Amino acid sequence: MVDGDRTRTEGERIADEIGRALQGDAWHGPSLNELLEGITSEDAIQRPIPAAHNIWELVLHITSWANIVRRRITGGQVEPAEGEDWPRAGPISENRWAAARSALAESHERLREIVSGLSDEELSRNAPQSQRSVAAMLHGVTQHAAYHGGQIAILKKAIRVHHRRTAT
Questions:
Q1: Threshold 0.85, pTM exceeds
Q2: Hey, CA dihedral for 34, 40, 46, 51, is it positive or negative?
Q3: For the segment 6-35, what is each residue's pLDDT rounded down to a tens digit?
Q4: Angle between helical axes of 55-73 and 94-116 (0-180°, round to 10)
Q5: Best label site of 13, 91, 132, 144, fewest CB within 10 Å?
Q6: Confidence grade of residue 161 (pLDDT, cut at 50, 70, 90)
Q7: Which residue segments constitute the domains of the chain, with CATH numbers given?
């Protein structure tokens, strides 16, 4: 435990973990923002692994689940709405790609704001319609972002290899 952690609440520590997954200085490696640096809208829609989701779809999916978890802990709709789990990218443009990345950042920041104010009692309660605690669900959303971040890292490498091959 880092000395500064002794004075923070568990909610503040979990909020910090969520922030690191998005913004950087994460134990697991590059954050989502670091992985998405230099990715254009054209890169984001590439499907170098035909049966896999593309980067844009993964960003939308990660965003959705941060929003779903936020809803769950604030008393909102528990289950994803139709099409919310894996939203479609829609028309492709740099502006829409920038908007998707902004929505990713906003979803995590809004979740962090709420989480940092949760008491230990609130964190230890069962999440809605779950046998797991709110804290476990929140750690899960961070693990979810890291898992899909790993996929983004692999896709980014595959796209870069493809660009090098077609440039020669």
A1: yes
A2: positive
A3: 788 999 999 999 999 998 887 777 899 999
A4: 30
A5: 91
A6: confident
A7: 8-75+95-167 (1.20.120)
